[in-house]
Amino acid sequence: MPLTDVTTDIDNRTLTMTCDFPVTPERLWQVWADPRQLEKWWGPESHPARVTEHDLTPGGLVKYHMTGPDGEIYPGGWEVIAVDPPHRLEARDFFADADGNPVDTAPQSRMLIEITATEGGSRMVNTSTWESAEDMQNVLDMGVVEGSSSAIGQLDALLAA
What pLDDT band is residue 93 in, cutting at 50, 70 and 90? Predict the structure, then answer.
């Protein structure tokens, strides 16, 4: 399993997940930059994703929806803040309405993806920061660690294929 560390810090409102993969940073970046690859791993295995908009430029949007086992749709998205391929992506991560627009009353986080070369391949560190501890706790209660761990498992399989 490439997931090597999960750190939850309620005081600083951060969740940090560290993963190591036996691929180059350029190959790892492709799974973020290509919407067809992104939808093969984004979200829990039980909730496949469909990317409907994908613009990885500052100010651009990535919109997607996940479909639960019961057919329920869970829309979400990111607003890109900064991007430096293949090493860095920073975005506002949000829950969305049926049209893919951010739901301002739902928890939002700032997502920072950092990819560095390692001796054996690449390390990806995903740090999410919420505006309040309550927002973070709500997302933790929804199962964000379990869902993200499932997504990392799917990413590992995609990179091994």
Answer: very high
Residue 76 to residue 63: CA distance in whole angstroms: 6
pLDDT tens, residue by residue, 35-69: 999 999 999 999 999 999 999 999 999 999 999 99
Contact 19, 123 (CB under 8 A): yes
Closest CA to 52 of 93, 83, 91, 98: 98
At which residue do the structure tokens 């295995």 appear? 45
What is the spatial distance between Cα 158 and Cα 37, in angstroms, rounded to a whole number? 8
Question: What token pair was written down for 152?
Answer: 């990392």
CA distance 51 to 14: 26
With tokens 């651009």, the residue in question is 60
